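2.7 Reproducibility. Because tokenized structures are sensitive to small changes in the input, we list the exact sequence used for RNA 3'-terminal phosphate cyclase domain-containing protein, including any N-terminal residues retained from the expression construct. No trimming or masking was applied before prediction.
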Amino acid sequence: MSQPRATTKSDHVNLNGRTLEGGGQLVRIALALSTLTSQPVNIDHVRGNRQGKKGLKGSHVAAVKLLGEISDSKVSGNEIGSEFLNFFPQHSKSNNGPLVDLSQVEVQTEYNIRLPTAGAIFLVFQALYPYLLHVGAKAAAPFITVSITGGTNASFSPSYDYASQVLVPNFAKLGLPPLFILLHKRGWSSGPVELGSIQFLIHPLGHQDNSDEARTGSQSAISGFPRINLMDHKRGGITKIDITVLAPDSPPINAGALGEGGSTARQYIEQVTQKTLRRALKKLNPSTFAKPSTSKSEGDDIARDVADDIPIPIEIHTSEATSHRSHVYILLVAHTSSGFRIGHDALGSLPKDPFDQGSKPKHKGKQKARSDSRSRHESDAYGIKSLVGRCVDGFIEEISNESPNTDDTGPPGSEPCLDRHMRDQIVIFEELGKACHPEVEGANEALEDKREWTLHTKTAEWVCRQMLGNG
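Resulting structure tokens (single pass, no recycling of outputs):
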């Protein structure tokens, strides 16, 4: 076991921010592990692989600031646009493991972060969550409340809907404590920027057992992060699919003129999504789905017939009207028989309305007006179908057992239990579990096929290995 030590400059871990994916994820994971293990870290070339502006964004600065404050760490370089960052925790590791000694930590029960723009709330949360899971056992409450104002539906980040429907259930399935997410207001990073607000209720590790001992700093009460091996879990068959649609009700889509049912834009997206999804599901191997229960009622049989013989129900989970054409979001979530959730989403907008610019001509023939109206409806319908198509294609790729990176088609039961985006969210907890329970390391553990990993997942593993030395 490691002993408390005086940290020197030579103990710093130096990371090149241009490695692999080379974006903000590298920074967030490095800082989370630095606070957890009291390991100082220097990061150069922050977000060096990003197109356009490099360096820290406002959301990174906010996360670093709060992490530095709650972990009593020294920080330099924490400014918007900075391409270097030094993070120097002042606490020592525990005698009983690789994590920070809880006897040195003070924790509040509530934290508030307000981003200046609609930056992604869940990317900020990603940096804070691992540390608060551990030190939250010292809080004078059964859970820690973190409120963040920013973007709930932002580009290149988990949305509120994905986090609540996919991330949270999967965390629980893999053995992490309960996490509750409360949406107060949606915030969009596209179009007219709107700030949203989300509240997280974080139940820390060890909060259910020996919590009094944990609050006094007794490490014997804390077993650390649970050991996670995804190869111990089977995905099972798909039992149902949920659809979430966020879109404006205006303008209306006069799909009747296009030979389809008339509806609002949001209703049209629902209709197109269900139709496109059912058509795609028919092409999958029947082993993708869970076997139908023998106890199905007559009503279930009728519903299945209406759904064009798709062997599982497809339901609208959430349908909300948004206030602008640029605020369009679709999420598809598959429930599996083993309790996992597999999701894929798309953030987009309706095509720009040509009638929104300037004033309309005072005199226009009826034929011309009808032609312009039809063109607008066709443009909206095409844009919707394109967005839905991308979302459905990505979702089908996630739930099918056909590998896009190899020539193999895995046998039933060999499919990954997590989607690709969820997979990279789990890496830090896998590596922390290995560090906390090295005695569980088994030579006979099944190995995961890393050919399926995204660059984000590979980056997450690289950072964790550099910080924790598990490699």
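The first strand starts at residue 13 and ends at 16.
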